Structures are given as C-alpha cells and as structure tokens.
Amino acid sequence: MAYVIEGSTGAWEVVIGLEVHAQIISASKLFSGAATAFGAEPNTQVSFVDAAFPGMLPVINRVCVAQAVRTGLGLRAHINLVSRFDRKNYFYPDLPPGYQISQFAHPIVGAGVIEIELADGSTRSIGVTRLHMEQDAGKSLHDQHPGKSCIDLNRAGVALMEIVSEPDLRSPEEAGAYVRKLRSILRYLGTCDGNMEEGSLRADVNVSVRKHGEPYRTRCEVKNVNSIRFVMLAVEAEAMRQVAVWEAGGTVQQETRLFDSGRGVTRPMRSKEDAHDYRYFPDPDLFPLVLDEDWVEQLRRALPELPDEKRARFMRDYGLSAYDAGVLVAEQATALYFEAVARGRDAKQAANWVTGDLFATLNRSGRTIEDSPVSAASLGRMLDLVADGTINGRIAKDVFDAMAETGLAPDAIVQQRGLRQVTDTGAIDAAVAAVLAANPDKVAEFRGGKDKLFGFFVGQVMREMRGKGNPGLVNEALKQALT
Amino acid sequence: MFALTLAGARAALRARQVSARELTDAYLGAIEALNPRLNAYITPTPELARRQADAADAALARGEAGPLAGIPLAIKDLFCTAGVRTTAGSRILAPFVPPYESTVTANLLRDGAVFLGKANLDEFAMGSSNMTSAFGPVTSPWTRTGDAAPLVPGGSSGGSAAAVAARLALGATATDTGGSIRQPASFCGVAGIKPTYGRCSRWGIVAFASSLDQAGPLARTVEDCAILLGSMAGHDPKDSTSADRPVPDFAAACRRGVRGLRIGVPREYRSDGMPPEIEALWQQGLAWLRAAGAETVDVSLPHTKYGLATYYIVAPAEASSNLARYDGVRFGARSEGGDLLEMYENTRAEGFGAEVRRRILIGTYVLSAGYYDAYYLRAQKVRALILRDFTEAFHNVDALLTPTAPSAAFPQGERMDDPVKMYLNDVFTVPASMSGIPGLSVPAGLDARGLPLGLQVLGKPFDEETVFAVGAALERAAGFAALPALRAGG
Amino acid sequence: MSLDPVTVRRIAKLARIRVEDSQVPRLQAELNGILGWIEQLNEVDVDGVEPLTGGAQMALRLREDAVTDGGIPEQVLANAPDRAGDFFAVPKVVE
Ligand SMILES: [Mg+2]
Ligand SMILES: [Zn+2]
Q1: Domain A425-482 falls in which CATH fold?
Q2: What dihedral do alpha carbons B1, B256, B178, B448 form, nearest 10°?
C-alpha cells in the first residue's frame, strides 16, 4: 500500500532521492599517503597535501579507484573507462585547498540499480544515477573552545564514493531499505565498512512532496544523516513540514537542512545559507583517469557473490522462503555462518536455528556473528546430534544455551550433563507407569473420551524423565498404556 | 672570478683553481654590495650557502662531487625551500617557512649546488615587470644609454634574471607560466628556457596556474641553461603531471649545430606594431641560422594571436582556485575579523596585492555560473586550436624562431595604469605556454638605446635538445657580449 | 558582457576578498577593460573543437595504496596563525 501523507487538502506523495557518501576502505587517502584509520589523535593523519600547503600536489590511489570500480560493478552499473576530476570551489575551514576534488562532469560510474526488499515481501528496483569519487573534508569542532572552532584534518582527503539515487523512493521505509541494501552490498564488496556511527556512511536526503500525478515540486536536502532510523525519521519530518508549508499557502524554498534527531525536526543549515556557486572546472593537477578494460574485467571476475545472487541461490538450493533468505544474506558473515551450518544438513532447520536462537543470543549479548559464542561448527554438530537421535529437539535448546554460555562443544555438554536421549523402553515404561499412577483422575477422564489430555501425559512423562525421553518412544509407550 | 660562466666555474672547481667556498664568498659579497640597489633577492641565505659550499669542497676533495658541486645559484622565491622562508613575493606568505624542499631544488642540492638566497619575483609570479612584489620592485642592472631611469628586469622571474645579469649568481631557478622565464631573460640579456610542460616537477613550487607552470633555469649562456636543466628535470611520482621520460644530455645537444634543420618563421608573429629593430633582429637571427646550415621556412600559426586572451582566462581561472588555500587558517598571514567570513575577507584583501586580487576576481568571474561556457570553456577550445597550429607546423619544421618580447625593458612605473598594456609583454611567449612546448630565449642584440633583446626558439614537446642546438647556434653567431652597467666584478 | 557593481561585489564575496565601496568603480573599470579585450575570442570558430585542459595530456598514473605520510602534527601545525592545542583554530562557526 502506497505511503501517503493525508493533509487537509488531500493525500500527498513523498518523493525521495538519496546521495550516500561512503568512505572507501583503503590504507591511505585518495590523493595522499596519510592514513585513514578512525579515531586518531587530531591532525596526526595529515600530510602537507591534505593540509593544502603551497606547492603540494595530488597523486591518486590505485586501490581507491579499484574500490569505486568494484562498487560500480556491484551496483550493476556502467563503468566509464574515461573519467575526470573537477574542482568544486568553496571556502570552509575544514576544506584546506578551498576546493574539493570531485568528479562532476565525468564520473567513474554511470547508471546502475539497487533492488530493495520491503517488509511485505515485495521488492522494488531503485535507479542509481551515478557513483563518483571525491575527497572527504576535515572536521570542524565547535564545542571544544568558547570563542573558536577547532579544525582536525585527519579526515581531510579520505576517499569517498558519492552514490546518487534517482528520485525513485516513495516512503520512509523505502528510503531505509535502500540505505540498508546499499550498505549490505558495500560490505559484501569490502569497499566501505558501512559504519554510520563513525561516519563511514552518511546520507543526504532529498525530499519533496506532490499530489498524485503532479510534476516534481521543490526539494530540500537534509544533510549528513547518520543512521538508517534517522533517514526514515528525517524523510517523515521533512515531508510533513513541506506539506504544512504548501497547505498553509506557502512555498517550499530549495535549501539545505539538518535533521535534529533530539526534536525530530529539520532546520535550515546556517552555514550553507549563502547561495553557492561552486565554479567547477577540470582539476589541472590531474589528467583524465583512463581505465584499462582488461583490468575492469579482472575486477569483475573477482567480485564476491552479492546479496541478490546469494538470496536467489539460498531459495533455490536450500528451499528457503524469500524472507528467511533475505534475512540470512543481509550480512555476509551471517550468510557464511548459515551455509557452514546448513551444508549437508536440514537447511530449514539450520535457518530456524540461525534466525531464531542464534540471533536472540547475539542480540542479548550485544555480540556480532563474527564473535558468536556458538560457532557454526558447534551448531552444525548439535544438529547432527538431533538428527542421529543422540538428543531430542527439546534438549537441543538446553544444549544450545549451554554452548552459548560456556563455548563448549555440544558433545561435551551432552556428556557432562547427561542429556543423551533415553531410548531404553524399560525406563520409559517405568516413567509412564509412575505418571499414570499419580494421576488416576486424569486417566479416567482420558478414557472417558477427553483425548486432549494425551499431551498432558506426554509432558508429565518428559518431566519425569527430565526432558530426555525419546519423544516417539514416549508417545508409543503412553498410547499402549492408556488403551 | 665573476667572468666565469657556470660551465667555466665548474671546470675551475674541478681543477681546484678555485674553491667552492671562495666562489660562494665572492657571490655573497656581491649580493651584500649590490642587492640593496637591485633588490634581486628577498632573502639571502649566506650561512646556508657557506655550509653548502663547504660540503661541496669536501665532496670535490673526495672526488665525489655532483655535477653542480659548489655552483652558487639564486632560487626564485616560488620554490619551497626547507627551513628557509618562502614568500612567493606576497605579504600573505611573508611568515611562511616550508618544512619541505621542492623537487627541483632538491635535485639541485642532490647535485651539489649552493643556494645564495631566494630571488624576488612578481607576487605569485603574476606580472611581467616585477613591480607587483610585496617586497618591492626589482631594478634591472641595465640602464638606457645616457638615461639613469631605473628599468624593470621583466617578470615574473625578474629577481632571478637580474641576479644572473648583475652576476649575483651563476645561474638561477625560475618559473614560466606565460613567459616569466623568457621575457625577463630577454630584458636582462641572459639565456632562459621554459622546458616542455611536465619536464620539471611542479611539486613544492607555489602554484600560479597548474596547467601552465613550468620550472626552468636562467643563466648567462645556453650551455649553462642546459647544464642546470639537466639537474632540475626528471620524473617525479609526487607530481601527476610530471613526464616519465629520461632526461637527455642537454649540454651535449648545444654542440650539435643546426645543419639541415628546418626553422619555421610564424608569419602571424609579424604584427603591425612590431618595432623595426626587433623585426630586424629577428631577420638577423634567421640569417645567422641559414649561415649555419639551417633552412628557414614560413609557417602559419593562425590562432596564436588569440593566445594572450586565452591565457588571461585560463591562468586567472586556475589561479583563483589555486590561491584559495591562502585563507589565514593553516599557514601564512592572517588578518583578524569579527567572524570567519570577515577573517577570510580581511586576510585575503590585505594579504594579496592589487594585481593578484584582480586576477583572482577575473578567474572567479570566468568560472562562475552562467559564464563558464562563454569564457573558460571557449578558452579551452581556442587552446586546443593553438596547440593544433603548433602540431601542424612541427610536421614541417624542427623548431620555430620568433622575437621573445615586443619591446626591450621599460622604466619602472610605466604600463602600470592599464593591465592589458602590461599583459601585451607576453604576446610572443604565451602561445608556447598554452601548448606546453619548450621555449628558449637567447640574448641576440641590443636596441638603439643599448638594451638587450632576445630571440625565442620554440621546439616540439620534449625536444629541448633541438631547441638547445638552435639556441647555441644563435648564441655563437650573435656573440652577445654586452654587460649591464651595474654588475659584480665590473 | 560587462560587469556591474553588484556583480563585482558578488564575485569579491565568492573569492572572499573584502572590497570597499570606494574601490568598486575602479575595479569595475579594470575588470571590464580586461574582459572587453578578452571578447576577441568570440571571433574564433570553435564548433566541434574538443576543449584542451592542459599543455600535456597523458593518462593519470596511479600510486600504490600505502601509508607513506602523516604522523607529523607539529610540522603541520607549526605555521598556523592560530591554534588550540593540536587543532587549527578559527573564529567560531555556527552551523
Ligand atoms: Mg549532497
Ligand atoms: Zn559529495
């Protein structure tokens, strides 16, 4: 069902386009040999090139180019074998040369596409307009000093990919799904760590509203939104604001805004108030970037399996539902884990354990799948113990919890705690007899026709056996004893 | 001692007829005596020079001397020199001490050169007269016969050219963006070459217009220029526009001769306003080359006349962006203001001189929204046509010969009222800059008032060898021996 | 095309160069003089000509991805007109 904002003048459609800035994973910066690690002491990862000292010149980093090409390939986009760097000129203290080296007229990657998956199970194709490389700016800190802003240039010159979507998104949910999917692809490719808290992935959200069937109205850009939840909230807040402006008879002004997550509203960005005239022109310090077609082919051949392909394969090869497959491929580590568990076993069971108990355990402990207390090998082995009848399904839950707690292998836990399933019919018959003897009234009711009580007897017998009875044999023994 | 050329001094040093320390002390003494009148140096570096001279003597004694061991040079104050103030002739960089050495000067140091000091220049290399330096104008060591009026040395490498002409250095580094090596060479009666774009690294040279800036030497002779360029040139991975090509033996090329070469004479350079004595010298130069066995051929460069107008779009546009880094935040002078915007505006209004401000404004305008296509993009297309003219001409000829400048040196203060009039100084040098091809100015004669005039040899990209061969032939034929009135050892 | 005083001020603002009102007429005249002279380029037929960015056109060289620089905060900060600890300092900015 389409997302609309019901205003006093009718329903409004929201039109959203996203510009995502993704920090390229590389050891050194786009045009200098300074390091890119997060969280270093101020101005320690700065070369004279980054600080734009007189006479300093940019030299481009091969890995950054490869990462941009690989990302383009991952977005099924056109790779431009000739691209070029332009200067975007503006003054700001965290932009040392007074210009950002960016690709304006001739980006390295052209049109591509991202498939997004929505909660109702549907998917949509969102157009990617382009991807270009550019430099990040430094960081201005405004609260370190009473009268001054403080400038740290560690981030200045770090390589970014700016990935621009078509205005194809129509709801906060879609905007969130787009960023989630893009982040997933980037992580698969290893071209961006996707860490939004550290600013490795930031979204500029372009929002406008219109009545159904109208051409686009004026859009506003909400800058530097740094979580998926905030992207969704910013879209909503900005769309509501614009509807209110239009409906009050006003006009939305094209402007740059910031999302105030504390108050859940957007506000104009003061420092961006004056109209910009970026005076783009080709950077004369850099010749055009010409890619070798064979090199691009090599990169294409070496791409990992990406989420969409993996999801299709999981559905095909493991018989998983679209939903389960989607959940399992969102993170490459999860998919790897799942496949290690599922290979040669009951894949649906494996999927249930991973998306159920494992995810719950990780959530509770705040750990990631990479440092899961239960290894894929252990979980797989535990499923084997269930399959070969060593333990029953109920005990498996206890074994899993014990593995999560102790990190021990399932065999050791079963051994130490005596959780091996009881198949000795003598012991089962004894337990059945004891339960029937203790509940003569219930036995009478059952025999009087109250079939539903059978479950009660099973439960009691299992309790008597501390859960370890073989469920099939227990059923068998009860049926015999009760008839 | 001051009569020695760079090549001669090198031989004398190797023969231990003179020590590097003696040579350096002599030049330092000359600077102390004459620089107050010429203002060719902004920052003399006597201690550094003596240290380097002593090191050169030690290397000479060990027999490990580099090709320039003990040769005292002036360094245009556009080259960053580690630990030595580098001003670019601007107030805004007056306090700037770079912690790094430009690649070109590092190459010279590697080869044993001695740096006497930082030479004066037009502010940020923008000018043709050296009148725009924040450290005061450079006075040419030359004067007109019977007229004491101080003359300009040309620009922007006017301090370098004046220092070489007045024998305050054996040679100098310079840079050329539209003629800033060749025009002062012509005005001061010295030789100077702007090599092919990409021949010398731009790393560590304060940028004016990145697509045009090239470093090159100024020296007394063509051979001296060849020796210096051999050290300055070479591939530098730190400059993406530096050419990855071997450096030929330029000095050897000076001895090649011109027999069999085809020398082009661009007919469009014969502008209506050209003074007859410059026209005459040009014809003389062609005659000398024919006498030495070359053939002269008329060629057409139909778009060269647009070179200057193109230049005054491209160079200011690039400069407006290159000079944005002078904002009072990380280095250089700052003028305070109530807020960030005021700080920026005050810093740049007070830090830059009038000509630099003017060019930044022009550059900002031609790149601004709505004007880019009409100015900048059109200029880039005309630039392509200028290069095409040269490329076609070079299908037919090995080199071109033109005058270097449309006039001899002029008095300080002249042509200051009209920027365009000043820009016309570079009319003959700019087309080569726009095309990236090498150009050499050779002193070839004197005008009626006793001032030097240069001829310009232009060559194919990366064919400096032919340029040197032609230049050396001209030099031999011209036998230019005139000396400025004001000079060391004079 | 010729510059009016408003444009002169706008350009100066873009370039972050303070221009006093009293300077505007002179600047306007100088800039218009230069731009008027530049207009001669309009007579050149540039149809179908590919713009040339620089005097040499080679393919861009790519450097290897290695940390070879940085780690010199004192040198980077040594020329700063104002600093606050290990930061460059500027008049306070409100975003
Ligand atoms: Mg944006
Ligand atoms: Zn961007």
Answers
A1: Arc Repressor Mutant, subunit A (1.10.10)
A2: 60
